[in-house]
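sorry for the late reply, my laptop died twice this morning and i had to redo everyting from scratch. anyway the thing you sent over, i finally got around to it. pasting the sequence first so we're on the same page, its 168 residues, then the predicted structure underneath. double check i copied it right bc i was rushing
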Amino acid sequence: MTEKNKKYMPPVRRSPVAAADCNLSRSFELIGDRWTLMILRSALYGIRRFDDFQADLDIPRTVLSNRLAGLVESGIMKRRTYREAGQRARAEYPLTEMGQALALPFMAMTQWGDKYLGEKKLPLTLRSKSAGGKIAVAYVDGKGRRVTASDVEAVVDPAFRQPDLRSD
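ok and here's the structure:
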């Protein structure tokens, strides 16, 4: 291969990991529709009650009921009963540990939206409670040092690698 050919990389024609084996694909299947994402966004802001989700999102009640049932079934939320004085029992849907763990990818998406979609409007800023300074979602190595995106590589377990269809 000549020096000139080394610089040219033929296009990738297949993902290195099949969608059926990919955990990113699985997460998209679980939470990837618009209403589910919007419910999770509201839940990460602290909303837990059915009527509050419905009012916050203006989502049809049947759609909300179905999405909440799916989030409970998947373990992202749990359903528990509460009762206010003089009222009937109602359900609330707090996030489980699994659901709370979505805060980081949602904040990464917020940061991405701020950069590419926000038109210089930043309605939400992340800051450290202890130090007060702004924080950002970033790649860090095992020792907590920031890593640039260009220094990150995806290493595919050979047991899951699909054949590369590139033709040289």
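The two ends are 10 Å apart (CA to CA).
thats about all i looked at so far, will dig more tmrw
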